[in-house]
Structures are given as structure tokens and as C-alpha cells.
Amino acid sequence: MRPPLPRPDMRRAVVLLPNGFTLGNLLFGVFAIVYASRGDFEWAGRFVVLGGVMDTLDGKVARMTRTASRFGVELDSLVDAVTFGVAPAFIMYFAVLNHDAWGALFCFIYIACAVMRLARFNIEQGGRAKTQFHGLPSPAAGMTLATYWWFSQTSLFNMVSGWPWHTALPAVMLVLSFLMISHVLYPAPPNISLRKPSTLVLGAAFIAAIVLVAIDHQRYAFPVMVAYVAYGLLRTFVLGLVDRLPSSDPLMDDDDDDEAMARSIELAEHPHRPRRRRRRDRNTPLGEHPFNPGTEEGRE
Questions:
Q1: 126 has pLDDT over 80
Q2: Pick from 137, 153, 127: nearest CA to 72
């Protein structure tokens, strides 16, 4: 008689599901770099946008299945550094910046700010559900930069800009880099709820943006991302939220307390401290005190 087949560990499958979306994000980031190196900037931008879709799904799936973990947070940040930091910068580098002596420097500045943005996110908000972001999220910055090439190839770009697209590109990269490490607050994608009318308005705007991008991604994807960037600025400064911005910044502040650090090291070196509370012997009847100063258990 054959032994029964072991039942599949469904818990393990559920835990691996959000990490699968994260690795899908990495796959699209690698494809974006490869296609950009071949000169196919249309598909390179599409892969960055698809990476943004995977980045949104992995967090939502992790919260829905209650499988969020520290490992998932760190993996997500490393993947985002590739898909929304390295890939968009290399798209712009292969498109035009490789002909400029300072092109590599602009790419470095953008990638460095994206990495610092992700490090700050891990310290402040990593692994928790959020309604707003401290600084421009790296996925939004990456998709804005990746879709810039799409928009620059349309006639609409020439109507709204008097500058050649390759001349304005370094300024776009520097602005996005600064916003990623700034104190500007940006809203997270809304969870639509009938109990909160404000979420209905934001949800309707979010759906309208998706419809516009689906209709003509070359014309509307970049303006939609610019509208998100501008909304964060207006929400922070015009609506009077400047005074409520975070006062501390892990990028600049160093608030390590030597005394607290020494205490933490001491506790780490002595993880099992003897308990000072006297224990009652199990065989001692209730009401009788087991303390005996002549024994080892009775000494403090």
C-alpha cells in the first residue's frame, strides 16, 4: 500500500504569493533596461509601468493575505531600486544622455536619490498600510521619467513646451530627484469607501487617469504623472500643511543616543537575566511562605 501523498502547504504558497509579484516587478525592470539598450524606448517605458502595477499588487496581496514580513519589505525596496531607479535612468541615458558629457552624472543623481528615498521609506513606513508618502514615491518618479519619452514624441509636447525634449530632460530628472528626498507629502492610491466621500472623489480621479492612459498612453501617461506630482506640491504648500511636515529626517538627522545604545548592547549580551521575583515551591501549601534565608533560593 502506497503511503498517502503529503498535503501541500497552502500557508507557504500564500506567503510566497506577494514575493512572486515583487519578483515580477524585478523581471519587468530588467526587461526595461534590456529594451532600452536596444533602442526600443516604447517597450522599455511599458515595462516600467508594468513594474509599477506589480509593485501595487504585491503590497495589497500581502495585506489581504496577512503575509507581510520584514523580508518582503526589504526585497520590495531592492527591486524598486532597479525598476524605478536604474531602469528609468538608463532609458534616458540610452535615449539621449549618452551623447552628453554630463549625462552619466544626471543618471547617478537620480539613482542615488531613488535609493535614499527607499531607505528612508523602510525606516519610516515600510510594511505598514499608508495613506500618504513622505516624499515623492520612487515608483511614481520612475514612471514619470519613463513616460517622458512617450510624451516627447507626440505633437502635444511641442504645443506645451518651447524647449526640445532632450534639452528639458536633465531638469526633469533633477526635479524628480529632489522631490523623492523632500518633505512633500504625496497621497497613496485611495481605498474607495462609501463612508468617506473624499475617497470617492480621489477614486474617481484615479479611475479617470487609468482610462485616459488606456486610451492613448503616449499622450496622457506623462501628463497624468505630472498631475500627481503637482497635486502633492499643492496639497503640501497651498493647503497649509507645511507646518505639519515631518520634523525629523533619517537622511540628514543622526539621533543616536550613546547611552541608549550602551543599554541595548548590555541587554543583548545578557539576554537571560535572573528573575528577582521569588518563586513559590509547587509543594508548599498556599498561605505558607517558602522563603528560607539559609538556602540559595532565598537570597537576592
A1: no
A2: 127
